[in-house]
Design goal:
Helix content: 25-40%
Strand content: 25-35%
CATH architecture: Alpha-Beta Barrel
Number of domains: 1
CATH superfamily: Aldolase class I
Oligomer: single chain
Distance between the termini: 6 Å
Number of helices: 11
Shape: globular
Number of strands: 12
Strand order of the largest sheet: 1-4-5-6-7-10-11-12
CATH topology: TIM Barrel
Length: 236
């Protein structure tokens, strides 16, 4: 299992939101590149970066994200505001290893099919669920798709990896939704990366038991609830 330390960026700063709400924001660093280098130094083998401005369709932070990718020796995946083939081309050309399609995958499955055809496993789909339904547009709206049905649809298009987030637990340090994660792992044969709610090393152990391929840890690393080096040892 891979542990992905998370860097969420708003207006060039490294932040965390609670349950994806933009009015519940905590700034952890003014220097996302330095934060990324610290994670690499601690032994992280992959980094997860989200452009929260991009996710809302506002200005994007691609220059900073490109700087992160160029400053590290480990691969970086990114999502947020990647809505067209031109966006995908641009971000991958900036040196990112993988791009995450979220809202665009829900609204435009043809884009997913086209992107998979061109880039294969460099394309990941983020499935953000609220009460079992897929949320879109920076989590501010909910679609009519059930998360499990949508995942099956993405698998049929050739997607090999999904990031599954339970919004109700995200940023709350209350523990992940283990049932939802296990259900998703059992439902699809894609790699499932779990996201949302990790609050302790115990959570990482439990997630490993569900069979997920990876876990994204954000707030708990910043607050010190999870020691990244120990988390990496458990994941191994």
């Amino acid at each position: 299992m891979i542990v992905f330390p998370a860097i969420d960026i708003i207006k060039g700063k490294c932040v965390r939101l609670a349950q994806g709400q933009y009015d519940k924001i905590t700034i952890f660093s003014d220097d996302p590149v330095n934060m990324a280098l610290q994670f690499q130094k601690a032994g992280a083998e992959y980094l997860h970066v989200v452009d929260l401005d991009g996710a809302r369709g506002e200005s994007n932070n691609r220059e900073i994200i490109s700087n992160i990718a160029k400053s590290l020796d480990i691969p970086v995946q990114t999502g947020g505001g990647i809505r067209t083939m031109a966006d995908i081309d641009e971000v991958l050309n900036l040196g990112l290893a993988r791009v995450i399609l979220g809202t665009s995958a829900v609204k435009n499955p043809d884009l997913v099919a086209e992107a998979i055809k061109k880039y294969g496993d460099k394309i990941i789909v983020g499935i953000d669920a609220k009460d079992g339904y897929v949320a879109i547009e920076g989590w501010e709206k909910t679609s009519s798709f059930k998360a499990l049905e949508f995942a099956a649809k993405m698998e049929a298009l050739g997607v090999s990896t999904i990031i599954y987030t339970d919004i109700n637990t995200d940023g709350m340090l209350a523990g992940p939704n283990m049932y939802a994660m296990k259900e998703m792992v059992n439902e699809v044969s894609m790699d499932v990366i779990a996201s949302g709610g990790v609050a302790s090393l115990k959570d990482i152990r439990k997630l490993k038991e569900t069979g997920v391929a990876g876990v994204i840890v954000g707030k708990a690393i910043y607050t010190g609830d999870v020691d990244l080096k120990q988390a990496l040892q458990i994941a191994e």
